[in-house]
Design brief:
Elements lengths: L1 H10 L4 E5 H8 L7 H20 L3 E5 L5 H10 L6 E4 L2 H7 L4 H6 L21 E4 L5 H16 L13
Parallel strand pairs: 1-2, 3-4
């Protein structure tokens, strides 16, 4: 969905940056593990980068797991314009979609601090957008996300059907 949003922003010529949680963790946050304290710090760093970009007119798409409510609230407070998107998907569907085999490893006890398995995920109390990705196709979820963002943020309409660039 983050890549679909990026493609849409390309189509309507709006400046953006996609901050992929895994890429940022690898490039800037190698010193962090997966404890609650380290996860909160990772989210704080992502929010700091997003806020810097936002101040210069660049839309920040942050695609990251942020399992703790308090860290999400602090990120919202740091950023001037913030939309919390909760991509809701049950564990059994995540396991079925798991191309890297991480859920199987976590369920076997091979991975510590794995969100939704051995570490908690605190559900958002009032997300700005709630996507039920298990009951929608990838395209339907992305279309719903874009429609809701357009309502909330006044994004312009495209001049034709957008296609996700892969």
């Amino acid at each position: 969905m983050a890549r679909a949003l990026a493609s849409y922003l390309d189509d309507v010529s709006l400046p953006y940056e996609l901050l992929d949680g895994d890429e940022i963790r690898n490039a800037l946050c190698r010193d962090l593990g997966f404890s609650k304290q380290d996860r909160d710090e990772n989210v704080r760093r992502l929010a700091f980068i997003a806020n810097l970009l936002n101040r210069h007119g660049v839309i920040s798409i942050v695609a990251a797991i942020s399992p703790y409510r308090d860290a999400r609230l602090k990120a919202r407070e740091m950023c001037g314009s913030f939309v919390e998107v909760f991509v809701d998907c049950p564990l059994n569907t995540l396991i079925q979609r798991d191309t890297k085999g991480l859920y199987h490893r976590a369920l076997a006890g091979e991975l510590e601090h794995f969100t939704g398995v051995s570490d908690p995920y605190e559900l958002p109390e009032a997300p700005d957008i709630h996507v039920h990705s298990n009951s929608q196709s990838e395209e339907e979820s992305a279309t719903f996300l874009l429609a809701r963002l357009s309502e909330l943020q006044g994004l312009p309409k495209t001049h034709g059907p957008w296609k996700q660039k892969r």
